[in-house]
């Protein structure tokens, strides 16, 4: 058990959340700010330095009372070095030694990892994954990806990018272009950031809908679905199928029996998960159970997971 405070930072494409945790793992202060989407690595890091300093000051704490700062970034990161190769939602943050930059300016331990890995660690230790040996956290929100926990540890792969099941190919060279520079990856069929384009294409193909490509998001999609909107029904059925295949492929590769689902599009609820489960079961012919669970930690999942990099289990 650590005796000091820990800060967890969850940097997303729309907001950056900060959490200050006491030595019992309780959140004692929390704040969230809009993401400076155009910032480059140093500018983004300078904002973090300023905010961390402010949080300590207003809680009458010094850096000596801090065990460290964990940061979850929506980036392709080499976890051991904290080097960021690219960030699809913040294109200015790339080829940047972010951990070293922060470490040189803040007198405390800094750990950086991918946000899906941080969320996976949070659910494994404190949420729906408690009691399991291995677990996969699957995010469906702005993006689609996963964090893999094997024997209690995040599995990062050779280059730090394990779990990027969203960029595995579902329909190679067919479908929407993704930030991974391929067409037809699972993300292009599932992720929220591709919803507007999928609405646009549906309308172009003559499918009737109340959805507007300018404003389409998960909430509007569910509203339309609930009023039997033809395009919304097709879109959610498609998402369910592709998500089932994505999870099925991860299961076949890793043979991990527990999948925990998080991210904004989980709000689609039964509309998505009932047909998704049905499709998975249709393809699954082995008598061992595969558990699908919903993430339990809510909006704090990212800051809890980031802080977990400092709190040793
Ligand atoms: Zn992709």
Plain-language structure description:
- The chain is α/β, with parallel strands linked by helices and 313 residues long.
- Helices cover 34% and strands 21% of the residues.
- It contains nine helices and twelve strands.
- The strands form three sheets. Strands 3-2-1-4-7 form a five-stranded mixed sheet. A five-stranded mixed sheet has the order 10-9-8-11-12. It has a two-stranded antiparallel ribbon with strand order 5-6.
- Strand 9 and strand 10 form a beta hairpin.
- Helix 3 crosses helix 9, helix 6 packs across helix 7 and helix 7 packs across helix 8.
- The chain starts with a strand and ends in a 5-residue tail after the last helix.
- The relative contact order is 0.15.
- Bound molecules: zinc ion (ZN).
- The site of zinc ion has 7 residues, from loops.
Task: Identify the notable features of this structure and list them briefly.
binds zinc ion; 34% helix; alpha/beta; five-stranded mixed beta sheet; 313 residues; globular
């Amino acid at each position: 058990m650590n005796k000091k405070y820990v800060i967890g930072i969850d940097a997303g494409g729309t907001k950056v959340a900060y959490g200050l945790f006491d030595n019992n793992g309780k959140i004692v202060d929390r704040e969230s700010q809009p993401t400076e989407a155009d910032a480059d690595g140093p500018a983004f890091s300078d904002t973090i330095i300023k905010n961390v300093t402010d949080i300590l000051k207003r809680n009458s704490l010094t850096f000596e009372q801090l065990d460290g700062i964990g940061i979850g970034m929506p980036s392709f990161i080499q976890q051991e070095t904290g080097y960021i190769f690219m960030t699809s939602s913040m294109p200015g943050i790339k080829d940047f030694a972010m951990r070293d930059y922060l470490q040189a300016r803040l007198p405390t331990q800094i750990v950086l990892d991918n946000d899906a890995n941080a969320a996976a660690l949070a659910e494994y230790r404190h949420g729906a994954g408690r009691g399991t040996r291995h677990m996969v956290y699957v995010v469906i929100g702005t993006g689609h990806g996963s964090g893999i926990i094997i024997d209690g540890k995040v599995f990062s792969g050779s280059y730090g990018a394990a779990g990027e099941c969203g960029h595995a190919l579902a329909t190679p060279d067919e479908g929407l272009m993704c930030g991974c520079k391929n067409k037809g990856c699972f993300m292009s069929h599932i992720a929220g950031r591709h919803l507007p384009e999928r609405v646009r294409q549906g309308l172009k193909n003559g499918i009737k809908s109340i959805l507007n490509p300018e404003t389409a998001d998960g909430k509007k999609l569910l509203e339309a679905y609930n009023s039997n909107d033809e395009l919304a029904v097709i879109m959610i059925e498609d998402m369910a199928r592709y998500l089932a295949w994505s999870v099925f492929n991860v299961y076949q590769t890793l043979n991990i029996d527990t999948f925990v689902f998080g991210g904004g599009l989980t709000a689609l609820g039964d509309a998505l998960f009932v047909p998704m489960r049905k499709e998975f079961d249709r393809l699954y012919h082995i008598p061992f159970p595969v558990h699908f669970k919903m993430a339990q930690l809510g909006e704090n999942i990212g800051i809890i997971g980031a802080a977990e990099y400092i709190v040793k289990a």
